[in-house]
Specification:
By secondary structure, the chain is of the alpha/beta class. The protein has one domain. Helices cover about 35% and strands about 10% of the residues. The chain contains five helices and eight strands, in the order ααβαβββββαββα. A hairpin with a 4-residue loop joins strand 7 and strand 8. The longest helix has about 50 residues.
């Protein structure tokens, strides 16, 4: 064997010794899978935290819209009405001019929570009777009902603890026909029909009457309606009052 052939033989032998075996390849794949399993939850959490922050910013703007409306209308909250005879019976239509929208224009982007997957709302007009924002207002703010028991017209000055009282919050996913929540009914049946209390990683964003937004944990369960701790958050005077209130 000449020197050239010997060199080729030695080089081939070296390559065979340095090539990956099946076991080594499987070990590398397993390590990659473990790392991916560790990183993906962290990435998902970071993405969800980003959505929560974006939602909080939306609610902050909407809360400012509420307060600006109150300033212009002798501190009265935007009214909601059960009767269809009132064209602008929804809070989100009444405050539209204060958040960069108009009744005949497209739905303001801040009415859409990034944690939901409702693209339709982004391309709909505000006067569409079949599409509601991803947020629900507290019915205690102001509500005109066919029954005087539920009719309540309130002013900002009537709120006992503005830093606690919740004006608006996340709407429950799947409830597309609600513009308000009612703490008495929603919490009593334990299912929170229109309240999205766990939409953001088990919690939700809430806009308070002083304009700040909080990120709170609200446990589900029928017992919660009898827990006085929450009364100051959902009742203007810290307790339920039947109507009429004007």
């Amino acid at each position: 064997m000449n020197k050239f052939s010997s060199f080729i033989s030695q080089h081939s032998s070296f390559q065979r010794k340095r090539s990956f075996t099946l076991i080594e390849l499987l070990v590398v794949i397993a390590i990659i899978a473990i790392l991916a399993g560790m990183l993906l939850p962290a990435l998902n959490r970071a993405r969800n935290m980003g959505k929560t922050a974006s939602c909080s910013a939306n609610q902050k703007s909407i809360g400012s819209g509420f307060l600006l409306y109150c300033d212009d209308f002798q501190e009265y909250f935007p009214l909601n009405a059960k009767t269809w005879e009132i064209p602008s019976r929804y809070w989100f239509r009444l405050i539209a001019p204060y958040v960069g929208g108009s009744l005949t224009g497209l739905t303001p982007k801040i009415y859409h929570c990034p944690a939901t997957k409702r693209a339709a709302i982004m391309n709909s007009k505000l006067d569409n009777n079949y599409l509601y924002p991803d947020y629900v207002a507290n019915q205690e703010n102001g509500w005109i009902d066919t029954s005087s028991y539920w009719t309540k017209i309130r002013r900002l000055r009537m709120i006992l603890k503005p830093s606690s009282y919740v004006m608006l919050m996340d709407r429950r996913t799947g409830r597309l026909d609600q513009e308000v929540f009612n703490w008495v009914n929603d919490s009593n049946d334990g299912c929170f029909k229109s309240m999205g209390i766990s939409i953001h990683m088990g919690r939700a964003n809430y806009v308070h009457a002083d304009g700040h937004v909080s990120y709170m944990l609200l446990s589900e369960g029928s017992w919660i309606a009898h827990d006085s701790f929450y009364d100051e958050y959902f009742y203007p005077t810290g307790k339920f009052q039947s109507g009429p209130i004007r």
